[in-house]
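user: Here is a favour to ask of a fellow structure person. I have my own habits and do not want them to colour yours. Could you put it straight underneath, so I can go through it closely?

assistant:
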Amino acid sequence: MFDVADGTVEFANLPAPPEGMEIVGCDVIIRLRPKRKG
């Protein structure tokens, strides 16, 4: 596992938070696998 540098991933649209709440962060998981041959 490794960290992706801040600012290298962007989201164009996030859903509005529920009434009385604010978005303070967003965690992203990028799953990797070896490239397939061929």
About this structure: The chain has a mean pLDDT of 89. The radius of gyration is 15 Å.
